[in-house]
Amino acid sequence: MSMNARDMPDRRDGAFKREPALRVFAAELRECRYQFREGEDEKSPTFVLLPTGERSNRIFLVGTLTEKQRQGEQNIFYRGRVVDPTGTFFIMAGSYQPEAMQQLAKVETPAFVAVIGKPSLYQKPDGGFTVTVRVESITVVDKETREIWTLDTAARTLGRLDALPTGSSPDIVKAKEQYPTVDSAVYRKMAYDALAQIKM
Amino acid sequence: MDYSETAERISRKFSQKGSEVDPKKIETRLRRLVEEFGVQPSEAERSVTNELAKEFNVPALGSGGGAKGTGGTEEKKIGDAVPGEWVTIEGKVVSVSTSASPSIAQSGVIADESGAIRFVAWAKSNAPPMAVDSWYRIESAVVDEYKGVSSLKIHSGTSVKDISAEERPLIPQTAPIKDLHPGIGSIRAKVVQEWDASHERMLQSGLLGDETGTIKFVIWKEPGKERLEIGAAYAIYYAQVDEFNGRLSLNLNTAIIMQEETDIPVSGGETSVRGAIVHIAPGSGIIKRCPVEGCNRALSRQNYCPVHEIQPNFHYDLRIKGWLDDGEKTHNILLQREAVESLTGISLEAAKEIAENNPLGMDEVFLRMRDAVLGRYFICKGREIDNRLLATACERVRFESGEHATLLNRAGGAA
Hints:
The complex is a heterodimer. Chain A is of the alpha+beta class. Helices cover about 30% and strands about 30% of the residues of chain A. By secondary structure, chain B is an alpha+beta fold. Classes of the chains: A alpha+beta, B alpha+beta.
């Protein structure tokens, strides 16, 4: 695994570079099967590789929080489901993120929420995979914000799809290796369907 | 070894200065040094030249040989002077500054058509004090370099001659801001921002901009120095360009500043970022600021200013520090009071009210502001400095059906 300039945290005069929050639809995030770590350090960031060819350490999503549940006895944590036009995001916030957990605890379902969080990939006992988003923050927003997010996410997804056939970035190369059966027409249709659900 | 050639050369130099020295006499001295004392020929040449210069009371001519191995110092344009060289230049003194150190008699800036350079006259040089606006011929000075900035050192072997008699016009050449490099620079620029003074000796600091970019400037308090007017355009000649941590800034204390009639468009610095606010950092919301004039630092919860200690008569201010994320890059943003008020709908007065009457105090303001802006889309406009966008105006992004239609076409068109 090579380090490229983008991933080197730039610490010079405190100019720390924060990982951007990618825009991804639930239907794409659900298909992730490959997760990797950049560098050997304990604190090195973990990335989930999106099928459309970009690594993601953080995502920004807006949707409807339809369910939330408190779980655990000693270690309390909350799980929730956030629905976008294409599917469902599984979010969680535990006692390691007390702020986020309290924010999530406060939200009454259903509500439009904006979530900033870190995706990670888990393999279930039956061999299947789930992608869970560990919440960094969650706030209640309005419907317009969800619609703007849908436009934004469709635009970013289409941008990734456009770069996929000819792109040569390490992420695209790795995505072609890891997801050999990806059909970009499927994701294009996903974006179209998401946009089509917005009523004028 | 033949000494006659060297002797001729030295003799010629002195005759140029109006002192006739017999080459034979020079030759004898050279021979003595080399043959009796085992001195290197180039060193002997330098030594004899200096000796004779003292005898004839001629200002030193520089080494005839010495380390350079060339005859005398080269006459150069200021713009061509390279660190490490001995040079002779002619230029106009455009500014002088008082020196803090007793070992420096005078320092300032000297310029010709090709450029300008800082000069330092050592006290030991016994050089005559130079006057602003006069022309001088400076012979055998050394070009030195410190932290990438060249300067001209006037030492005991340098001769300084007033040549103001021959009138010469000098029109300074200004450069685009993006082409400035450490040293002395002249620009035409507009004052685009004024910042809170961070030091009590500071008269003014802020940002200057032209078509090509922006640069930080500072004016230190000194008699006769005036503040620049925000929004006004200036021709700034011979400012000192400093470099710190890879960023340039202009010290205007040495500069000649003239206000211009015409406006200067500033395009480079203003940026606009559209994205979602993904984080609001601690220290956002309502804050207390130090009331000491020119300080304005944010106080701790205990009203402690890092410089002026406990300040119970603080004043309140609003700000938001956070991250605005466009999906590809996260921009560090700093919103000032007006932008915070329009973004959150909470005025400074309302925030004060909340902070003083709520059990959570200032935290309550932070929480309300966070809930009002986090996860929403905004377009923030301002200047990006040190990777931070100082946003002066922010507006909510609205849903646009035109954008929607374009994206539908884009997604459906290729399906």
